[in-house]
Amino acid sequence: MLEVRDLDLAHVGVVLAETDTPTASAVDEPPAVTSEKVSPVQALSDASRAYGEIGETSSEPRWGMAVDTERCIGCWSCAVICKSENDIPLGMWWNRILTDGDELDTPRVGEFGGLELDWVPLACQHCDDPPCMKVCPTSATYVGEGGLVEVHQEDCIGCRYCMAACPYGVRVFNWGEPDHALPFDHGMVEPRPIGSVEKCTMCVHRLREGQVPSCVWSCPAQARIFGDLNDPEGELVRTIEARGGHRLLEDKGTEPKVHYLEPRRRRPL
Fold it and tell me: Once rounded to an integer, what is the mean pLDDT over residues 204-213?
């Protein structure tokens, strides 16, 4: 039998002493879990913090993002870490992965007869002219720091006018008691009140720490670029200009801050 020698599990509130055989209490009782929150910067290793640094910006950052659909592999890593980071209950998604075309997850026949498929990650577009804000009767939805569309959760009365007004369908409603895959509160932010609408915040709590959103940090294909749209020399603006990025439903006049980069080559399945 393997021995456990002074294994420090302080981050979950448990320390196991040296023993040959687990006691009945160690087997039957679940470990105690601390509810203390730490910032994303504190939770990450030095290497992870360095990887997720936003870098230089203009004096008045206007946050935005580009999604490279050539690089996206449809793995849902961004959507899963979004749920974990933001304490999103089961059955709700702030971040979803759609596919290009009329039918979800249905490949198209390419020019030479092969099957092709491109993925389209979708979350709040953080519009410059957000229709959700215009219809909110309590002004719970507002444009906050860096031009991001945010929600004062305590002011939301759950009328869902914003959900009807959003042309992207990216807002979700908290219907009842949340159900989570894990039996403890694992998010970096506080859960939202029951009966309120919630959505992607672009991980504003991470931005305040100088870190990119968790979906950008976690993408294994590096398909997301985050940065300052007011910085013409930044990677985000230079990439959008070089690749000719487009925005979803531009005819609606919402002026979204998320740009999509078209594939430069076909992807056979």
Answer: 94
